[in-house]
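Tokens in:
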């Protein structure tokens, strides 16, 4: 699959000798199911636009991107700014974080190491965790024309020596192309990378809670508590009823006969063998 590195490097090749500036921002936008889009946004300053449109050529004529569109990349139209600059965005969908990682780390070719890092999405019962940890090293930006016949042919057709362009870009790409990172994760807003020791570093994570599942868990816990209360109140009521019943029958609440009053038989004559009162 053709990579946006063709776009980045053609722009750099067109601009480096003209002391122009192009901003390239690599973005990752992830949805709640772990799918999303990888994008590369390129902005040319006014001098860069003039350099590309030399001899009356338009941007879309000077930089043809049909091969990217034919390989699943979505290519926007050039948008002109009031200052004379121009912006274009190419993006590609991904179904899994692993696919997104493969696209991002392969932006300048699998061996270049321009972009390194991890893209993760872990689903849980009550929450999902997403993370993007990427680093761009501008010093790793290489033309690699010897491995890209299409790019070399384009440069020759424009009257440019590929070897000269490669040497110039390899030495000055970091000053010509300003690279950036951007990520937007489910449950969180967009985050941009920060400069760090000559590189651009982005490390962001987000947690998205499943509200409907939390509601079900809360309802389940509420029902358990209610059932426990009903059971406890029922047991107390049964014990009270049993105690009142036992008291009416003259029994001890625990089922034993209540102790008799020692003076209950005082003054009574003892009964005989056959139940008659014994003679006095």
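Residues out:
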């Amino acid at each position: 699959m053709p990579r946006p590195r063709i776009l980045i490097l053609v722009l750099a090749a067109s601009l480096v000798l003209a002391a122009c500036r192009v901003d390239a921002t690599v973005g990752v936008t992830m949805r709640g199911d772990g799918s999303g889009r990888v994008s590369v946004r390129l902005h040319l300053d006014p001098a860069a636009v003039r350099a590309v449109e030399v001899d009356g050529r338009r941007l879309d004529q000077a930089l043809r991107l049909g091969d990217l569109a034919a390989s699943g990349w979505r290519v926007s139209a050039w948008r002109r700014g009031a200052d004379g600059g121009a912006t274009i965005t190419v993006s590609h969908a991904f179904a899994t974080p692993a696919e997104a990682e493969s696209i991002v780390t392969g932006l300048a070719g699998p061996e270049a190491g321009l972009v390194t890092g991890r893209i993760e999405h872990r689903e849980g019962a009550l929450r999902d965790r997403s993370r993007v940890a990427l680093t761009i090293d501008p010093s790793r930006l290489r033309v690699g024309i010897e491995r890209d016949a299409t790019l070399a042919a384009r440069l020759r057709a424009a009257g440019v020596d590929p070897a000269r362009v490669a040497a110039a870009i390899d030495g000055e790409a970091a000053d010509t192309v300003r690279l950036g990172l951007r990520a937007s994760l489910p449950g969180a807003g967009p985050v941009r990378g920060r400069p760090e020791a000559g590189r651009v570093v982005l490390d962001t994570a987000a947690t998205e809670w499943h509200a409907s599942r939390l509601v079900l868990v809360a309802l389940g816990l509420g029902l358990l508590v209610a059932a426990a209360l009903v059971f406890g109140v029922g047991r107390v009521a049964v014990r009270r009823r049993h105690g009142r019943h036992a008291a009416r029958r003259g029994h001890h609440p625990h089922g034993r006969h209540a102790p008799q009053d020692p003076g209950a038989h005082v003054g009574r004559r003892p009964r005989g063998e056959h139940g008659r009162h014994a003679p006095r």
